[in-house]
Amino acid sequence: MPDGATGNVYREILLEVRDQAAWIGINRPEVRNAFREQTLDELAHALNSTRTDPTIAAAVVYGVGGHFSAGGDFHAMMKLNKANSAMWNDRMLKVAMACRNLPIPVIAMVEGACVGGGHELMLWCDLVVTADDARFGQTGARVGACPTVGATQYIAKLIGERRAKEMILLCKQYSGAEAADIGLANISVPAPELQETVEGIIRQIVGYSSQTIRATKVSLNFDSDMLYASWQHGMELLGNIWGTEEAMEGMNAFLEKRPADFNQFRLRNQEALDTYLDDFTADNNQSEKSRTARRPDLAGSEPEG
């Protein structure tokens, strides 16, 4: 669909403005709407383009073809490492800031998979309307990724620290109905009623004061805005994860549809620790010059010269 600002054609998303709402759909159904850098660029552009039309009262983010988003596309993420991690992390932050800083409500319309980075995208939105049978979850520990660009910051604020740790450390997943019950989503409805429910919310927003919504969104975000420093920490942590053998094992295992062998890294770490402790015990953590100076048979002798 042409983009009104530049005439470019979106290849990764759909954008439609109707009934005073911008409907922005991730259009990669062949990979359950997993996103890559180009997708993030287009999402950020489409979201920010709503600023040029003051009649737009809300933006809706959704996934084309039955899934909200399965998160980052591993074929893109496996090319990342510490040297180039900013190419990904900065794009994630740009989409997040677009969602949080727009003067209009951004609504996540969720069906199917809403996991990993897709779950973080949902967390950046102001309101979440979900199908009862959608699936919410963080999968980082299972695939060697690190959900530190929203998940570690916001989930605990929404559902409590215990549930957040269970979701992130144990990869616990919730249905859409459960997500609404615990506060991860606002409303859960049967899948056939999902779009109609969102359209009803948009009509409600259109009837309200845009300046009040703009001002109160800024005020409501004040507390969680204080977490931005944690985002910077999280992106640096993530930069040290990308490209490691352990991360690659997790993503390769997922693509090859086999269990990841993360225990090999625990065993390797144990071997490295044992080597360190053996060297410590044997006094091997010093130079030969220091060792000679401290030999018991030379203790107390006068230095030559």
Features:
6-stranded mixed sheet, disordered N terminus, alpha/beta, 305 residues, 3-stranded mixed sheet, 2 domains, 2-enoyl-CoA Hydratase, Chain A, domain 1
State the end-to-end CA separation: 86 Å
Low-pLDDT ranges: 1-7
- The count of DSSP E runs of length 2 or more, i.e. the number of strands, is 9
Please identify which CATH superfamily of the largest domain we are dealing with. 2-enoyl-CoA Hydratase, Chain A, domain 1
Largest beta-sheet characterization = 6 strands, mixed
Broad CATH class of the largest domain: Alpha Beta
Helix content: 40-55%
CATH topology of the largest domain: 2-enoyl-CoA Hydratase, Chain A, domain 1
Envelope shape: elongated
Strand order of the largest sheet: 1-2-3-4-6-9
* Oligomeric state of the chains in view: single chain
Average pLDDT, all residues: 93
**SS element count, helices:** 15
Rg, Å, rounded: 25 Å
